[in-house]
Every structure is written in structure tokens, then in C-alpha cells.
Amino acid sequence: MRHLTAALAATTALVTTVLLTTAATPAPPSPSLPAPASEPPSSVSVKVRPGTSKGSGALTPIAGADRLVAPLGVDPACPARIDIGLRSDAKKAGYATAAVEVDPPLTASRAMLTSYLPPGYELSAKLLVAVPPGTAEGTYGLRLRTSARSLEVPVEVMPVDRLDNGGNVALRRPVTASSQHTNANYPPCSVADGDRSSNGWAGGNGWNDATARSFPDTVAIALGGARQISRVDLYTLDTERYPAYRYGVRDWDVQAQVGGQWQTVAQVRGNTAGTVRSDFAPVTADAVRVVALASNGANDYTRIIEVEVR
Ligand SMILES: [Ca+2]
């Protein structure tokens, strides 16, 4: 996914967004959009941008990663996500369409990808892949098919305990928050979904609380058992359009639950950066929470993209 994101970021000119529903307009940092009716907003927009044609004359399915890990038993508000798309190597502009298929019982957020596409352009969209309760571990198939070509991406379904978490014991663990804004897609579980990117804000990649100018706001992650921890990395909203020094969290406490009691293990004050690492003396904790005390900017919501615990 990062690979595709980097490739797309290199072609920033002439980016257009094809709106499939009225909910797909670029989301402001302060929630003001109506709630999407049925689909998460991250699944409704298709982006079209210049790509690199190989001149084959065909439509080529593309994906942002060569495999997708879909953990079992996670909050349905935070399904596995992958960028999918099509590259037009055609000589003329036209409608490009691909079918999206996933092996049952997994389900995908769309069955089809389609857009008007000039020659040499690529379209991309987020695909959400849900793992229903009771799904057996194993590898399932996700296929993008055009009339001439098919791309298969293996989907590896596994329990959270077996994820390659890079030492981040918060990854995909249960998250609870003091509140959740409901005008777009800001689920608390998104702070432990492994996606640190602020891009696509309001599309399910970060948490926005519901109480403007009212603090504290809290978000807590259960660690799946007692773990020795000594570091928390917090990623707050930070993009060119929504920089952390205006939209990010400014002041917070990091707390660890030790023997049933919350202890403050680190404090951050006056932050203006998108990422802050807090190191502290090791404690054995079964949960970590961030107590947000103030944010930068006029709206004063708490906006957290990811919390990693080591
Ligand atoms: Ca995230």
C-alpha cells in the first residue's frame, strides 16, 4: 500500500476525484459532512491521476501491495484495507472497468471498479475486506479482473496474536474512546490498525472525538495481556492541508494500567509535530491510554491517527 501511495504521490499534477456519491467530497478537519448512508467513505471515492503507460493497449489491474493481512476478531469498523486500481494503456480515453472478487466468507466493500479513464492514467480506490466471525485461518483469494487480465492478491487471515507487529503490542488490539464523532468515519479502532498515514482523513484511518473544545478526551488500548512496555509513539493528524501545528493534539498524558490502576508514565506539552515518541521507565501493563488535554487550532478536537506501544 505504501508503495502505491509513494508512486501516486509522485504524480501530484492534475489529480481529480470522481465522485460516486455526494459523501465523497474532501473531508474537512472539523466534521461537517452528513453520515454516509451505508458504505464507509473510504470506499466511495475513485481517484484518477496520470500514470505511466506501458503502451500495451490493455487495461491492467493494479494493487498497492502484493498481499493483504486480514486479522481475525477485530472491530468491524476497522476492516483490512488495500489500494486497488486500474492503469489504462489504451490509445483512447474510455470507461475502464474491473470486477472485484473475494473468496467467501470474506466480503469486499465493492464488487466493481469503474471510471472514465484517459490514456496513460490510473485510477485507484480503497478496498475494505471484512472477515466475518468464525472464518477459518488461511489464505483466501482477492481478484481484480478486466476483460483481458486478472490480478490475484492473497489475503492471509490470521489471529491477532500471530500478526507480525514489529514489536508494537497495540496493533489490532481492542480500543475504546471517550466519544466518537459520527459525521464521518472516525472509529476508535483506527488508532491501532497499523496505518500511520494521515492521508484520507475522515476515511476510517484515525479517531476524532465528539466534544469540541472540551477536554480531557481519552482513547485506551487493551494489550491482550500483561506486557512490559517502555515506549509509546503517537501519530496525530498531520498533512499539508491539515498540519499538526493547527489540527493536531497539543497536550496529553500517556497512562499505563498497572495492577488495575492507571499510572501516568509520560507527559507531552506544547506539541506541534505529527509524531511524538514518549520513552519511560519500563512498566508491566495490560492497557495503555492517551489522555488528551488540549489540541492546536480553533476547533479543538482530538485527532489521533495511530498509537504504537513497545
Ligand atoms: Ca490508523
Write a structural description.
With 310 residues, the chain is mainly β. 4% of the residues lie in helices and 47% in strands. It is built from two helices and 18 strands. Strands 12, 13, 14, 15, 16, 17 and 18 form a seven-stranded antiparallel sheet that branches. The N terminus is likely disordered. Bound molecules: calcium ion. The site of calcium ion has 8 residues, from strand 18.
Q: Which regions contain 5 or more consecutive residues with pLDDT less than 50?
A: 1-28, 32-44
Overall shape: globular
Helix fraction by DSSP (H/I, runs of at least 4)? under 10%
Gap from first CA to last CA: 24 Å
Strand content: over 45%
Bound molecules: calcium ion
Secondary structure elements and pairings:
Elements: H1 2-9, E1 16-19, E2 45-50, E3 59-63, E4 68-72, E5 80-88, E6 94-102, E7 107-108, E8 112-117, E9 121-130, E10 138-145, E11 150-159, E12 175-177, E13 207-208, E14 217-236, H2 244-247, E15 249-258, E16 261-268, E17 275-295, E18 303-309
Parallel strand pairs: 4-11
Antiparallel strand pairs: 1-2, 2-9, 3-5, 5-9, 6-8, 6-10, 7-9, 10-11, 12-14, 13-18, 14-17, 14-18, 15-16, 15-17
The site of calcium ion has 8 residues, from strand 18.
